[in-house]
Amino acid sequence: MSNFWGSLPHLQKGERFIVGIDGLSRAGKTTIVKELGEQLCGRYDVHTFHIDDYIVSKSRRYHTGQEEWFEYYQLQWDVLWLRNHFFEILKMEREFNLHKYTASLDCCEWQNVTLPDTCVVLIEGIFLQREEWREFFDYVIYLDCPREKRFAREKEATRKKSAKFERRYWKAEDYYLQTIKPEQKADLVLQV
């Protein structure tokens, strides 16, 4: 992580530094974000976003007629909407609204976001370095964790559904690894 600390600029008033914490499912992104937030606290104002808070309703990402891996990679989020209404304005806008997903209701509700004028923004999630979003990050940390280790972190009941992982999640992850090559594009790769 020493590479990361050396990359943090002294923020001038009104500047925001956007950090992506990318990694596949169960790689430890949330844990790293929590640790980073605690370490940055006191030096910078910090605001954290979890990209999975901004997925779309199930009807838009399941049973669409597309292959399951495609639904997960391309339809789980409204990628272009997030580009236009989140990523593009992160450095400019102090207040904005996002569609935040509520799992219990399977719907999105408006969330008002207020950012400090000067801060570090941490964004954690899978597929963050996709072409539509990569340019908006000032720094990206990629967590490299073997599939077997990540899968072992799932609940036992979830692990029994390995066929769904093969059709939906792992195929999408393989697509991401092969086409985007996130470990090569990241500023820092952590073996976890």
Contiguous helical run count: 9
CATH topology: Rossmann fold
CATH superfamily: P-loop containing nucleotide triphosphate hydrolases
Mean pLDDT: 93
Oligomer designation: single chain
**CATH A-level architecture:** 3-Layer(aba) Sandwich
The fraction of residues assigned to DSSP E strands is 15-25%
Number of strands: 7
Explain this structure to me?
This protein is an alpha/beta fold. It has one domain: P-loop containing nucleotide triphosphate hydrolases (Rossmann fold), CATH 3.40.50. It has nine helices and seven strands. The strands form two sheets. It has a five-stranded parallel beta sheet with strand order 2-5-1-6-7. Helix 4 crosses helix 8 (162-179). The chain is globular. The mean pLDDT is 93. It is an enzyme of class 2 (transferase). This is Uridine kinase.
